[in-house]
Amino acid sequence: MKKVLLFSLVLVIAASVLASYPNRSVTLVIPWAAGGITDRVGRAFAPYLEKYLGVPVVVLNQPGASGAIGTDFAYSKPADGYTLLLSAETPGVFRVMGTGKLGFDNFEGIMMLVEDTKVVVVPGNSPYQTMDELVTAIKENPGKIKMSYSGPGASGHIQGLLLEEVGLDVSMTPFGGGSPAMLATISGQVDFTFGNIGTVLDYLKTGDLRALAVYTKGERSPAIPDVPPIADAIPEMARYLPLTFPNCILVKEGTPPEIKQVILEAAQKAVQDPGWIEFTESSFYNRMHDVQGDAVIEYWKRWTSIVAWLLYDAGVAPNSPADFGIERF
């Protein structure tokens, strides 16, 4: 009888906790330094999430190890909905890159937020006027057309590896960050790079850069509607697209479904707020809010199966994806 009463008491307390969620501030962990796209998105989104959760949402930057430190920090907290993780794509490759032991399968999805379309850019005085011309040059000069990227495993590196995957041999050079990689292109040290539309728009307006293609299968960006999709010039790429690099809201595995539902409903209202919509439109971000719940983790499963093997096959990742049960795409 005592065991039954104790069990009943535990159920009553648990139900009370769930019913009262949230009753204190919620922490939104951003595993990157201030100033980047994930930080910018997180700080813009937090006030709207706060508005509809009804409690303060505190933004906490925990940068380091390509997001692994902040991800570990979020995972170290109880699965009670009071610690949320605003993640970028890197948990998909922590294990193969040796930067962390966690992956997206250690979390549960709430909602995708936004992604900033990638665009192929060349110097303003480049001889290449179209993506077709750049592709022709790469084919005629294997290993000699130079491309800059921020660092191993970063989005630009992944996109360059995909070029190689479809038979385009380019010379890729890391520059230690997105800004140095972009400046290397503007100055003509390299022939091209991949950048975010939000980053390159001002350079396109001044003529320092020229856009040749957006990194999509068929869609064009409203920011640069005259620029064609990369799959037009490289049809072989279509198999891997869309391969985006969005932000998403995650919670630790084991978070009660009732709490996840409260967070999801608040997020659904937040992304419909006129202020948030204006922010995303003015930044030319692609909204991915329809990807919710389990679909978030499913999205990253496909992404990981492509990218982890690309990095391993290129000799960049020291650990085989097979060791972690990651199937080849």
UniProtKB/TrEMBL annotation:
Residues 1-19 form the signal peptide. Keywords: Signal. It comes from the Bacteria. The keyword Translocase does not apply. InterPro entries: BUG, Bug_dom1. The keyword tRNA-binding does not apply. Belongs to the UPF0065 (bug) family. This is Tripartite tricarboxylate transporter family receptor.
